[in-house]
Amino acid sequence: MAAVAERRGTGSAIVMVAYLMFLLVPIYWLVNMSLKTNAEITGTFSLWPQNPTLANYRTILTDPSWYMGYVNSLTYVALNTVISLAVALPAAYAFSRYRFLGDKHLFFWLLSNRMAPAAVFALPFFQLYSAVGLFDTHIAVALAHCLFNVPLAVWILEGFMSGVPREIDETAYIDGYSFPRFFVRIFMPLIASGIGVAAFFCFMFSWVELLLSRTLTSVNAKPIAATMTRTVSASGLDWGVLAAAGVLTIVPGALVIWFVRNYIAKGFALGRV
Amino acid sequence: MDKPVNNRAWFLVLPVLALVAFSAVIPLMTVVNYSVQDTFGNNQFFWNGLGWFQEVLDSDRIRAALGRQILFSAIILAIEIPLGIFVALNMPKRGFWASLCLVLMALPLLIPWNVVGTIWQVFGRVDIGLLGHTLAALGLDYNYVNDRLDAWATIIVMDVWHWTSLVALLCYAGLQSIPDAYYQAARIDQASRWAVFRFIELPKMSGVLLIAVLLRFMDSFMIYTEPFVVTGGGPGNATTFLSIDLVKTAIGQFDLGPAAAFSLIYFLVILLISWVFYTVMTAQKDAP
Description:
Oligomer: heterodimer
Order of helices and strands of chain B: HEEHHHHHHHHHHH
CATH topology of chain B: MetI-like fold
Number of helices of chain A: 14
CATH superfamily of chain B: MetI-like
Number of domains of chain B: 1
Number of strands of chain B: 2
Shape of chain A: globular
Number of helices of chain B: 12
């Protein structure tokens, strides 16, 4: 039995190493390129940089038109996460605790927004936000991303909230807690991991989205992802800086994953395990 | 099941409703509005009935894009779901290595989509990319810019690279919830590896698999940024999926009427297929 288990363990390890290699090699190649000069990238072919240089990173971190892209992206991502959670929390509580007129339809309708292709909304969003004077602001992108983040946040939070027994609510009311005080002081700490997971997903989908954020911004709120595409089409050849910019977009995500690593498995199941 | 009926709960839902009304209903109404009108410019619109819908449904170009889209989503699901399950079954169960695997596997999910495209665009190039260079060194005639098959293969491998981890992490979460007692019982019964998978692990994963299939279907059906960066829809129209075609029509050519009708049909197709998946998979679960 032990021998069988051990043989399976070795097999699993080989599978995992192969899969992780598959995931990491393309990322390694980007890092590799970001540490080379353009002459080295196009001139020679090497598996690691012969003369490692940080010049590409220096270009990005000293040029406002580059690094402001990161600031803009992080600003609207943070705004979006706060707005999404603020509206999703009470709604998720309502869905998990009560039945009310039209609740199931409302829930499915909310989720159907998650299925709407961003391409469908690009043009109407552009017109809507131009009409109300929000074009090229961080709040416009944050609100637009609520389209798919709010339904997801409601869905995740509802799953976590349903895992909390209702007796806790009832006991709190008997003890004389008002609803807002109960919600903030007792209930939110109980589902803290769920809130963390929902925040993680909001961050993730807002951070990776490009189509809407590019359509809704021109200069002041231009995200880093759009800065990259425009540079490619303009010069077309600055591979080193492009690679360095790409590597820097991976860093915030990697940091966030590290902080939520213990909740990640449950979070990916949206609290429904 | 025994939730109390309380219509005042509506007040708790109101903020979401207001926000989604602003960010979804108003834009969608704009789309509906455009889809039934035609214009000669100068913001003068007149009623066009269902003409645009007729045109979109009859358009060979859009039908071809829809065909490619369905083929793409089918291939993606056929590869990513089994591969994701397979990887999840082989992940370490706990401890440092489990955390490390989780973090590394989640990494591709948090890379902005156009950077994913850039990574593969570079990686596949014959002159400076490791993949293209290696394939060329092996004597294969690989060129994703000119060859349709290579372009498709590149985009599919890219999507597998990008999203298989999501399926694997979901399944891993499902597997974590199986108590050890189940496995012990299976060992006493001398159940085969396949039987353990078929009768213990798969049923326990069915809930998360539904989420995985739905999310992967919806997102692969809406895919835009990654293929746009890698191939720009080419060579020819070989990798022009629905979203790419739609953005070309709406923002590139500013053909509002056809784009709007196209949008609505597109949205309805996704809703319909998602609903079918949902119904079939939950019906299976309810059956004995």
